[in-house]
Write a structure and sequence with these properties.
Elements (H helix, E strand, L loop, with lengths): L3 E5 L4 H12 L5 E4 L2 E2 L4 E2 L3 H10 L8 E4 L2 E4 L1 H10 L1 H7 L3
Parallel strand pairs: 1-2
Antiparallel strand pairs: 1-5, 3-4, 5-6
């Protein structure tokens, strides 16, 4: 079964662009909101933030972080060329 998870911040335009893309394709996803603290220049500690960091395998300082099944796509700028060259469609169609 296809599982799409997106870690996003509400203030992030590229996060909303990624979620809008999946909506336009009528692909269901789970959105996990994280919050950025401008003063601390870091994500606010939360269950979603800890989950994102654990899944990414390193400290991430940007969103969106996208997971399609077990494949990690680090940001819209990585996903956009995958859309253009068909790699994202192939990934979505490859059911585990």
């Amino acid at each position: 079964m296809l599982q799409i998870d997106i870690y996003y911040a509400d203030v992030c335009g590229l996060c909303h662009k990624a979620m809008d893309f999946f909506r336009s394709r009528e692909l269901e996803f789970t959105a996990h909101e994280v919050e950025w603290d401008m003063e601390a220049d870091a994500f606010v500690d939360s269950e979603n933030t800890r989950s994102m960091m654990k899944r990414c395998g390193e400290d991430m300082d940007f969103v969106p972080q996208i997971f399609i099944n077990d494949t990690h796509i680090a940001g819209w700028r990585k996903m956009e060329p995958m859309i253009a060259n068909g790699a994202l469609d192939a990934l979505v169609e490859a059911q585990p």
